[in-house]
Specification:
It is a single chain. The protein is of the alpha+beta class and 114 residues long. It has a single domain, classed as Zincin-like. 30% of the residues lie in helices and 12% in strands. Helix 2 packs across helix 3. The structure holds zinc ion. Zinc ion binds next to helix 2.
Length: 114
């Protein structure tokens, strides 16, 4: 959904899964992570900590953050280009991702099926 609203549908298909626990390669825990496909693991995916499920808009924010990484590349940090793209994408759907809803009422937030 956000791919269409915020990125003009430009992002490639990426599976999104709930994870029990996420540990980054360096051993630190994370709320969400984008794993680009590699030689072993062909499929790329975004994993989000299942404990964030239903905690709107936290889980969306994590998803959104990872979607920006999908767009900018897995090596992208959170520098200026990341922030600029984050802002652009937020503006694209009027910050609805953040739970800022001014216009018509939205369907209740529910974790999308994965
Ligand atoms: Zn990030």
């Amino acid at each position: 959904m956000y791919n269409k609203q915020c990125f003009d549908g430009s992002l490639p298909f990426v599976a999104v899964i709930w994870a029990e626990r996420i540990t980054q390669p360096d051993g630190t825990p994370a709320n969400a992570i984008y794993v680009p496909g590699d030689a072993v693991l062909r499929r790329r995916y975004i994993a989000i900590d299942g404990r964030l499920s239903g905690m709107f808009p936290l889980e969306r924010l994590c998803l959104f953050d990872e979607m920006i990484h999908v767009k900018l590349g897995p090596e992208s940090g959170h520098g200026e280009d990341f922030i600029a793209e984050f802002k652009r994408a937020l503006d694209a759907n009027k910050w609805e991702v953040m739970g800022c809803i001014d216009a018509s009422p939205q369907k209740p937030a529910s974790p999308s099926p994965v």
